[in-house]
Amino acid sequence: MKKKLHLLLRYLMLILIGSSMALPFIWMISTSVKSEHEVFQPGFHLIPGVVKWDNYHEVTHQIPFADYYWNSVVVSSSITFGQVLTSAMAAFAFARLRFPGRDRLFLFYLATLMVPGAVLMIPNFILLSHLRLIDTYAGLILPSMFSAYGTFLLRQFFLTIPRELEDAARIDGCGYWGIFHHIAIPLSLPGIATLAIFAFLGSWQSFFWPLIITYSEELKTLPVGLSAFNRLYGTRYTLLMAGSTMMLVPIVVVFLFGQRYFISGIRLGALKG
């Protein structure tokens, strides 16, 4: 009896937690198909026939939504690829190569995680201004292509690869690049997928850095573009929520495709950590 009661309480807690996490998304989606005067009415229910699907169409006319979307896709995909590549190469060097000061250098690299990102924005902006990369794709992408967290995550995976596999690859004539490409990467796909999902989510929803590094409409990303609905004398919540709902689509797609690797990567990372 006590065991059944314990299971029932656990299920109720999971339902309550899931409902509390889902309420903001339910409000966002319901608001995206309401009229302006219905936004602050209580409840999430909608009256059949009053659903305003035109809000999604109006978003694309109020702002250059397709251009912002394309910019976000290009920037997020480039940052994700760059973070995975640089983190994998750095992690392989820290995990499998032997050179003087390796462990101290790795600890120094990890220490950068304690520096808040806001502190680095001004130095990065000054550096990019000297390089004449303000208001360019390079300015949006380059500062985010390196990740100390990603290096630490993949290093944990590379450390678990048996030395025997590396020795066998050397006998077959593989160098460091061959071992990295043919052994380390295939055996660490869960960790790479986890890092890719984290990198894509972080870059897709990034707002402050694209806001300060770009000033032309042609290079604005989606989070910055949607801020146009926040006006001085009020916010157009219906259009803002409609644009935010469409903004969620790539995140859902990326997570669904990488869900299997993501879950296994989190589980293996917890065991290896």
* CATH class annotation: Mainly Alpha
Structural class assignment = mainly alpha
Share of helix, binned: over 70%
Q: What is the CATH superfamily classification? A: MetI-like
Fold-level CATH name: MetI-like fold
Query: Major sheet, described briefly?
Result: 2 strands, antiparallel
Q: Can you name the CATH architecture?
A: Orthogonal Bundle
What's the short version?
The chain has about 270 residues and is an all-alpha fold. It has helices spanning about 1-30, 55-60, 65-95, 100-110, 115-130, 135-140, 150-160, 165-170, 175-185, 190-205, 210-215, 220-225, 235-270; strands at about 230, 235. It has one domain (about 45-270): MetI-like (MetI-like fold, Orthogonal Bundle), CATH 1.10.3720.
What does this structure look like?
This protein has a single domain, classed as MetI-like (MetI-like fold, Orthogonal Bundle). 72% of the residues lie in helices and 1% in strands. The protein is elongated, with a radius of gyration of 23 Å. Mean pLDDT is 80; it is low at 269-273. It has helices spanning 2-31, 54-62, 65-96, 102-111, 117-130, 137-141, 148-159, 163-171, 176-187, 189-204, 208-213, 222-226, 237-272; strands spanning 230-231, 234-235. It is mainly alpha-helical and 273 residues long. Helix 3 packs across helix 7, helix 3 (65-96) packs antiparallel against helix 10 (189-204) and helix 10 (189-204) packs antiparallel against helix 13. Strands 1-2 form a two-stranded antiparallel sheet. It has 13 helices and two strands.
